[in-house]
Specification:
With 103 residues, the chain is mostly helical. It has 4 helices and no strands. The longest helix has 33 residues, at 27-59.
């Protein structure tokens, strides 16, 4: 103890952890937000698996039209950088949502 302050592990246990984990009544909100995040992640994973399987089946299909569409899609998606693609999806999504909710 130096000048009334605890240093080291004892100081961390006495002072730091109690103030660090003081959520001031927001425990339920944080827990519900974490649960929602997990639900969105699992649903996104399932959607990605379904769309990925559909694309893989289309690329292996005996029909030339299905193979051409799947090849065009993968060529375009692989050619666009991820950050640009995310910004494009966000902008287009925002645009369509604005149109839908103003009707």
């Amino acid at each position: 103890m130096l000048n009334g302050h605890n240093f080291g592990l004892a100081g961390l246990l006495n002072n730091g952890l109690t103030t660090m984990f003081d959520l001031q009544g927001y425990e339920a909100s944080i827990l519900s937000g974490a649960l929602l995040t997990i639900q969105v992640a699992v649903l996104s994973l399932l959607l990605a698996v379904v769309l990925g399987m559909a694309g893989a089946l289309a690329k292996m299909a005996p029909y030339r039209f299905a193979r051409s569409i799947a090849t065009l899609y993968t060529t375009i998606i692989r050619g666009i950088p991820d950050l640009v693609l995310m910004m494009l999806i966000f902008s287009v999504d925002k645009f369509f949502l604005t149109i839908v909710f103003t009707l």
